[in-house]
Amino acid sequence: MRILLAASLLFAELAIAQFVAEPTNFTTKTGHAGINVRYKEVPTGICEQNPNVKSYSGFADVSENEHIFFWFFEARNVDPTTAPLTIWINGGPGSSSMIGLFQELGPCGIDYDGAVYNNPYAWNNISNMIFIDQPTTTGLSYSIPVPGYTDANSGDLVSLPNATCPDYADPTTCGTYNVYNTTLTANSTTAAAPNFYLTLQAFTGAFPQYSSNGVYFTTESYGGHYAPVFSRYILEQNELNTTGTAPIDLRAVLIGNGWYDPILQYQAYYNYTSNYSTQVHQGGNDYGIHYNASIDSYVYNAIYGAHNCLDQLLDCNSYPYATNTSDGTGNQVCSAADNFCYNMVEYPYDIVFGRDEYDIRYLTPDPFPYTFYVDYLNNATVQAAIGAYTNFSESSSITSTAFGSTGDDAREIGVRAAVDHSPSHLSKYTDAHSIADYNCNGYGIEAFSETLSNIPGYTNGSAGFANISSSDGIVHGQVKSAGKFSFVRIYESGHEVPFYQPLVSLEMVNRTIHGMDIATGEVMVSDSYITEGPVISDFVNGNKTVTFDIIPLNATYNTTTNQPNPPYDAASTIPEDGGSDGKLMTRHERVMLDAEKAKKRSADVPWQFGKRITTKKGRAALFEDSMGARRKHRHGHAWSGEL
């Protein structure tokens, strides 16, 4: 879903103090649509460890001041000239796809000591992979690079005449950043589609050998907005067949924990956190972490009370998305609705429980997935190797502010129609969610899937949930499929599924590429294919992996036990809440606390808005936008101080 942003609006892009030299020694090619591509072959060991697997990074220069960064990896275990091309983008809006590369499904990760390690479950095992930072100013994509520092009092970016950090500046804030200009990035999902398309035109034209066997589009979080709209745009451009362009052979779309329809998904926060059945809702999550009666009532009213969240979202979505209104009223209404719904409906969970929105099993700060790659990408040697021209940060405040100005997050933007239309043009369309993810939780995603009207067999009760078989013999989730459309539930996973459940993630992608069913990988999918099982999933995860102490930043995650690996320093734990003797409990004692004890952790006191959440590097925080309202953004991860 969205990321929580913090600190300064005019300058929140910093990660590490360092001026970045203008990159040199690019190879330049002209791709389709006349777009220049500047790239480097990345040395083995920077990420990919196999010397026989080539990697390229660089920029598609889609306009004079818009340079879209990409990082490409050849397929490892199949001939890259006959392998398909799989695209990955993160969400946000404004979240870097380096999140996906280093934390989830790329060839490598970075450990606590800053060392590169191989990812045996990398998706380039089976496909060519391209990671794209979009729109402009996201990640390593840039508009106009400027040297600058952050003013200690205002938090604003102060430009410098050259790459010298003055004595009066905090040296940790000096660096090379994008000029703060929101007109140099997209301000909506629809506005971002053309440059994404041009980036694909550029890359496939410059490297035609890597996309000869189809293109697969994968994403997560705000990708629930991006992927349907971008895919529709690609299909429309294919039909136009403009001179100088080439058709993009888009075959399938996979979206993890997507943000599709705010009208449904803001309501789903109540479903996920409530343990009280109403005439409208059946509430609860698998981990027994629910509001008490008073807070439950408060949040319910914040959604359904007169002129509250739902009414404001309906008002917002009554304005035409494509045209808005000449005086900008639609944008103002939608931005205000999103701010209200976040503050009054979504954000209380953070305050009441102090848990990670992306994985409610963990208190904040949550060390998973690992964020050590942020420092790695701000290393001068690494930046030179990949051609970076700005400091790296996980998320862009420029982009998030631009999208916030149009209220894009609060708009449905034609996502449902795009998804309904796509299965007739694609070989597969897969929609997945993680049980431990509050941010884009399964109630909202499943509710969205049930509103689709062009998928015979899915919404009429014919399709049911079937277990997903994996090569390790463990059932990691369930799938409900009808024809080319699948809805997936993944067990014991936070927001970024490939980090928590790497094997089943890889196998789902592999099955999709080969046109096989998600459930078994043994049945060729046809329009008449339907999974058999209960129409409503009857699986309950249980709370055995819920933690009740802060997990240290150097902890590692075990994808077999679905828990942190032992041991870790007992001194880093905290006393159990409410303990009279202040006893330090071990992780193993805490994770086995029963559901009743977990439920008692619901707060009985009102929360206070306006308090910044204490966060670790790379996780959620808050910031004040130009209207003075908190804004949260959906991406697949959050930032630290760099945004």
UniProtKB/TrEMBL annotation:
It comes from the Eukaryota. GO terms for molecular function: serine-type carboxypeptidase activity. Residues 1-17 form the signal peptide. GO terms for biological process: proteolysis. Pfam families: Peptidase_S10 (PF00450). Residues 561-581 are annotated as: Disordered. The keyword Ligase does not apply. GO terms for cellular component: fungal-type vacuole. Keywords: Carboxypeptidase, Glycoprotein, Hydrolase, Protease, Signal. Belongs to the peptidase S10 family. This is Serine carboxypeptidase. It comes from Knufia fluminis.
